[in-house]
Amino acid sequence: MAFNETDLLANRYNQVRGLSVGLAEGLSDSDACAQSMPDASPAKWHLAHTTWFFETFILADHLPGYEPFDPRFPFLFNSYYEAKGARIGRAARGLMTRPSLDEILAYRRYVDAALLEALPAMARSALCLVELGCHHEEQHQELLLTDILHLFAQSPLAPALWPTGFHGPKASAEALQWVEGRQGAVSIGHAGDGFSFDSEGPRHTTWLAPHALADRLVTNGEWLEFITEGGYEVVGHWLSDGWAWVRHNAIEAPLYWRRDEGGAWASQFGLNGVTSLNPHAPVQHISFYEADAYARWAGARLPTEAEWESAAQCLDPRGGNFLDRAGAVGALPPPGGKPHLKQMFGDLWEWTGSAFLAYPGFRPAPGAVGEYNGKFMSGQFVLRGGSCATPRGHVRASYRNFFYPHQRWQFTGVRLAKDL
Amino acid sequence: MAFNETDLLANRYNQVRGLSVGLAEGLSDSDACAQSMPDASPAKWHLAHTTWFFETFILADHLPGYEPFDPRFPFLFNSYYEAKGARIGRAARGLMTRPSLDEILAYRRYVDAALLEALPAMARSALCLVELGCHHEEQHQELLLTDILHLFAQSPLAPALWPTGFHGPKASAEALQWVEGRQGAVSIGHAGDGFSFDSEGPRHTTWLAPHALADRLVTNGEWLEFITEGGYEVVGHWLSDGWAWVRHNAIEAPLYWRRDEGGAWASQFGLNGVTSLNPHAPVQHISFYEADAYARWAGARLPTEAEWESAAQCLDPRGGNFLDRAGAVGALPPPGGKPHLKQMFGDLWEWTGSAFLAYPGFRPAPGAVGEYNGKFMSGQFVLRGGSCATPRGHVRASYRNFFYPHQRWQFTGVRLAKDL
Amino acid sequence: MAFNETDLLANRYNQVRGLSVGLAEGLSDSDACAQSMPDASPAKWHLAHTTWFFETFILADHLPGYEPFDPRFPFLFNSYYEAKGARIGRAARGLMTRPSLDEILAYRRYVDAALLEALPAMARSALCLVELGCHHEEQHQELLLTDILHLFAQSPLAPALWPTGFHGPKASAEALQWVEGRQGAVSIGHAGDGFSFDSEGPRHTTWLAPHALADRLVTNGEWLEFITEGGYEVVGHWLSDGWAWVRHNAIEAPLYWRRDEGGAWASQFGLNGVTSLNPHAPVQHISFYEADAYARWAGARLPTEAEWESAAQCLDPRGGNFLDRAGAVGALPPPGGKPHLKQMFGDLWEWTGSAFLAYPGFRPAPGAVGEYNGKFMSGQFVLRGGSCATPRGHVRASYRNFFYPHQRWQFTGVRLAKDL
Amino acid sequence: MAFNETDLLANRYNQVRGLSVGLAEGLSDSDACAQSMPDASPAKWHLAHTTWFFETFILADHLPGYEPFDPRFPFLFNSYYEAKGARIGRAARGLMTRPSLDEILAYRRYVDAALLEALPAMARSALCLVELGCHHEEQHQELLLTDILHLFAQSPLAPALWPTGFHGPKASAEALQWVEGRQGAVSIGHAGDGFSFDSEGPRHTTWLAPHALADRLVTNGEWLEFITEGGYEVVGHWLSDGWAWVRHNAIEAPLYWRRDEGGAWASQFGLNGVTSLNPHAPVQHISFYEADAYARWAGARLPTEAEWESAAQCLDPRGGNFLDRAGAVGALPPPGGKPHLKQMFGDLWEWTGSAFLAYPGFRPAPGAVGEYNGKFMSGQFVLRGGSCATPRGHVRASYRNFFYPHQRWQFTGVRLAKDL
Predict the structure, then answer these.
(1) In terms of residue numbers, what domain contains A123?
(2) What is the SS3 assignment for A112?
(3) Is D417 helix (H, G, I), strand (E, B) or coil?
(4) Which residues in chain D have their CB less than 8 angstroms from residue C300's CB?
(5) Residue-level pLDDT at D192
(6) Half-sphere exposure of D32 (CA within 13 A, CB side)
(7) What does pTM read for this prediction?
(8) Confidence of residue B75 (pLDDT cuts 50, 70, 90)
(9) Domain at A253, CATH number
(10) Residue A171 covered by a domain
């Protein structure tokens, strides 16, 4: 890595690290400490854990004589890297009232200073870990937002993180059109020089049957129709596990939808507080089970991840509604011409019908960072494309996100597919 | 379907129905009533539910004037066919002390007589349902055995269903060899005239990367080595969900293994009671999590279902160690020549690394029977090949069995695979 | 104990042991094996456990050379006597399909023969244990009935143990009258030569404030009024724990009440099957929480156990509606004169407002049988007087039964009390 | 109430309100927000709920034209007063990151100013509620401390609320002596003009059998002996529910005891952080189950509440080790002469063997405040005497505290009793 490359990396590091701090502006010490469910983590924990990553995998391992900020922090802020020692129980993260948010911000500054000073002399292997750490932190930026949203949704006061400016995925009133996909042998998976997570590769051949993808995401208006027609009450639409989930949790609408006093679904809670339901906006915060049931009700199905990736390979992954800075989502340039795929990147993560499994020839990254993805390869489904809470530039056509089929506190949506 | 075909079907019906009754011989009224866990069903329930299937989908639907044996039975013995009305809660099946086993056997005779009398005049669509019902009952024959085994394993008296005769999967002392599989575009899925379940089709193209399969199943001796080397204690071998399962349930060996007084794993419980562990016999009653962890420890992986099916297409699915009659497992003809695949059919269901999902173009069968498989397409993994408790003739190369990754009370085993 | 006394004891033994077998007539092997909830035990288990008591505490301990019926039975049929070795998990009792009911009946005959032969030569300490064993078995006779009732109540077939003959507590259409109780220092607790359980003593002084007891039990008709007036919906009637129980379990009526098709409470399930609700019959199968809430709603309270015992001391404990033989409940002789207490003995166990705690100077019986009562002295409430399922002669004025405040599968009822 | 009395009440109000704020000094916004278990509440919630009490029951009900600080607060800070409207779920209190601690302190100042201004003109009934509110707040002061202690005990950083000054109950190295109690008819319960909670009355006669009380609390050293002799491992010492609790939770020592690196019990965590175990200090943070098991092991029993109160009636309830101000516990004047009872008031709440039930003639206070105590009269045991975390002056001889038998995060201890 040449000198210029190191400069670029330092710039990138500063930009990523700065965005995290920006996202936490407006949070009180308590806001940053509370944990609203075991799946979520406190904002403070995200800010500290991402810093711990740089301190542990880079400074401690590659900078001789590095003095840790606080020797107790590794125990507090390790997540699931079993190879790096004991950890605090996941569900108890919200009880860590100390260190305070201010102390965590000081921890961040300490590590930032040490890392930026050490960067020019670092070995290439360490620089690659810095790059990985930036991508890792971008993931946690989105999680920080979804976790704060979930926390604030529990509050009777319904606080808004960003009362103005943030509007989530963009609305579109156009009728759905079908776009035919490629058939036969196609190549998917990451290849080339750029960064990717281990589970995105290796690049390999797969075979696509004739199919088409919807040109846009399913909207709130369409979802209301699904509800009106008994979508949540007809067992035949649902997977067996999905139906059990619906019944056990009395699910009757997307996660943050709220009723008006007359009982009608009229608004939703978001990072900008409670806003009225826009029928043309994409439906969000739905589980895989709901996405799958909707598709069956609509006479369609979910795309496979190979269908999605094959279609996305010709699109610019930096375009679309992504998070550009705290509170702001960038505009999507208007596309033109014949039927084409909209909202593929940004807006909402799209559930696919593919289980998150290893690609042929997959090998986990060596060392502790190799715990990253491979260990989650059971029971989860793949989502593609990023969301309005994903930092712009974070995702690629080959990017594989994954969650359990009942989870829906992420910015998730659904695009239909069908066999031809 | 010509007259001869009807005769053949009647023969097949008699043979299948007779085997079920044979399997239940030796069970007391209580043995046939108890339910040892929610995943399992009482033997009596299996005997009644399979009969309910013929009564409901064939006699009631296709035989004008048919008088049901008891109008209350549909409520008692429906399983998950939501379209066919209310059902008794799954976990409460063991509380149905009445009707008695004797009454259920009378119910079977009543339905058998009606069906056999009606068979010659039945429409083709009804005859297809009879065929389906026979396959359905064969599935429940294996479940009846695995559920009784689980029940008897809870008993301090360790009763044996078949004290003699049944020996489970066959032992083999030969060293493992690797057999290279096909590459590139291959066709899998069911095609042709024979019976198959809806999820086995449609036949379609898929793409195989270079790989090899082990020529035999993993043995008890090899598994003991895995345990000795800390297999159940090293987090790095395990999927994240698998590790949580191991810890939460204090798992330390296959399901029915037992220690001697010195604490060593020395015997296992089976349908023939407690027998000493044979190091050359295939290891059985393991979960997907265990199979996957073992494979990772061994530097290998599980086969995909496409790899398995592609390799099995040239083998005779009626060969191998299957259940031929109550208590008896047929012998495997000795194969000859160069490295080749053994134990593919029969012996033990083989976990694959493939999630149970729809094939391209999959359409559930119409009507209530269409609830059969499609609704289970989340969270489960595919197993292939049948077991020593599967009635001979029940499985095919395209046959897809599926269970959750933690389940292991079925006759499950593991065959290794690797990338080339 | 003189020769005549031994004869009397043998008679009593035969009578008690015979009643147990009589109660189990009409049960199939499965009926006797199933366990409908952890609080309940299989009928077979009651039959075996009471036999185990005689075999373990008397034959094994006091008869040199006694050969046990089956050396594995102690493990199977010990209940909570920790001092007597390991036990099978309580919730797994329903999985003991073997030994069969027939084998248990043979076990009973074997022990009966050995005990009756040994009785004439037994030491007085052993004879006292025989007496204790008879009382112990009488307790289990009532439990056998309540557990079978609970099991049959789960069945969609609603089987009746005794289709005719058994009618439970007797109805009375008379208006409630108050009977003033004694005041000041009174003596309660068992004294004298007769049998009692350790927790009934020692006899001691306690102090009663001015109070009155209702002359009869609360009726179904009165309870319907409680329901109609929102009894189960107004938090103010309930203890905090009781309200949580009502909400969590969606309680809205006594345990075995059933609605008609119009939704009205119209019938109840009992040992004689489903019968219509008699407004004049005592309400039964209610929890302490319900009894307490009803009393508060009625402007009254529950009696203390000292108030109840003090009032009962002048009544004949063998009078009243008790179990005389399988299926039959004896008649209550009509009382005469001024206001007096009815239904004190028999009919239904009456919840008191007293926690089950040690009397002053209480000492548990020595040895393993001393585990009998003292260990349950937290969290339970005292019930008094016996029920229509209690064998006649089993209870006394000093008899203390006890259950947790949420339990209601026993034959429980409520008598009001008030301060004067 | 004359003018002077109003002045006195204002002084008392100021003193109580000031102490609460003092206790919260040293807490960060997060410390004051987190909830470590459902039994506990956030410090912020205690500060707000006690203020809500004054605002709701006094200002809103008795001060015409009073403008609430924030109309949303009643929903947030109601506790269990069902009569006063809906409440936030108890387990979700820790998710109320807003309002902040600073806002709550402003809320307190607002209510304090309004109340003090209104006080001189208030009706006597309102003044009585002010008095009640002060006692209510004193209860929450102790809970605030026990809840913060429990929260900090979860932290790997083991923070101390009061690093110096607070030393908990006082140590004493003297041998235990027995002090005989009164016998026969005695009067207990509150009488007279002073304040008391409804459950302390009415005063009534009860009867005491011959007995003696230990002159001091059980010590850490004595408890270590109990542990060494297998106290937590011998089922015979334990109540049945207690043994289940020990096993299910793997209990092996008092709540905040900690082992040294060699595995020996060497220190305990408290409001002053981790300190070494003083063998002469009273053992604290034990459950009723533990207290009861210890007493049984020691050949003694727990006192009844009547025995305790009868003995305490001649002692000064303001003497002893109580909380005098944040971080400080007052000294106990040395007693002299013959065997006498020490540590009766202050130091630690003493478990009694009495269930928390209504006294004869008990009537709950009218209105919403009447929900205060009566609804908890099932399943809990009485504790007496106050602790080092109880504000001095809060308790009386008749004062009844109550907790479930498994709870031990309060400052609880044990004094032995025995029959004579």
Answers:
(1) 5-153
(2) helix
(3) strand
(4) none
(5) 83
(6) 25
(7) 0.95
(8) confident
(9) 3.90.1580.10
(10) no
